[in-house]
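Field notebook, page 249. I keep forgetting to write these up properly, so this time I am using the form the group agreed on. The chain and the ligand, NAP, are recorded exactly as supplied. Prediction of the bound pose follows.
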Amino acid sequence: MPTILLLGGTTEASALAARLAARGDPTVLSYAGRVANPRAQPVPVRIGGFGGVDGLVAWLQEHRVTHLIDATHPFAAQMHRHAVDAAAQAGVSHVALTRPAWTPVAGDRWHRVAGIADAVAALAGPSQRVMLALGRMHVDAFARQPQHDYLLRFVDTPDHPPPLPRHRLVVDRGPFDAVGDTRLMRDHATELVVCKNAGGNGAAAKLVAARTLGLPVIMIDRPALPAQHAVDTVDAVLGWLDHGADRGV
Ligand code: NAP
């Protein structure tokens, strides 16, 4: 019987937690603690960082973990690196549950950039009405382009108002749908969308809405992730648990 640590914070991690609970596989799901009221889970939950690679190795050993499943967000690059290193050091089987990146389809008007700094730089110029569909973490960087009228959407009400002189904040939790996102962008008279190439279905509604409205999108490419065994479905993770992990694939 495996003992699993599941690194979460994504829709896919929650879907996997439900399947592991249904199978009766002993699992602890780990949240970073970024969200005030994380989604309830059918498995035990721990919250907060481990204290780097050393802390994660210690946690894995203390809890006799046999399988580490990294289902964190594709932009959580540090956690991915720590997971790979800690699993190797602790001798624990490791897999990443990832999502294929989004690719543009007919009607999309994407301008791809390499990271947050490049997205900020791409906003130089006259004032526009911009949807910053990035969550809360990187919004402060956009204070360098204060001329825009920003639409923000956060999971929680922030402790301090974002440092953007002109913004409207919507507090809401996904998954979102294309009809709702189209309405939201229309209401705000959005002219441009900035987002990360998260992939997956849960966050794709804004891309459909941007396409529907003919809006340009500044698409931030994914950070480089470590070399790792990765699969992109919950079923593939279960297959790995049942057949693959012991063979080291
Ligand atoms: P990150 O930059 O890669 O990680 C920073 C640190 O946060 C890690 O070194 C680790 O601290 C801690 N951490 C991250 N994920 C954790 C987890 N699941 N459990 C325990 N500690 C965790 O990660 P991030 O981009 O801040 O993302 C944090 C969380 O938000 C992740 O769980 C991710 O799935 C979720 N999320 C991120 C994004 C995004 O765009 N980045 C979007 C949606 C959801 P220690 O070194 O102390 O262990």
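OBSERVATIONS:
- The chain has seven helices and twelve strands.
- The chain has a mean pLDDT of 95.
FOLLOW-UP: compare against the apo run.
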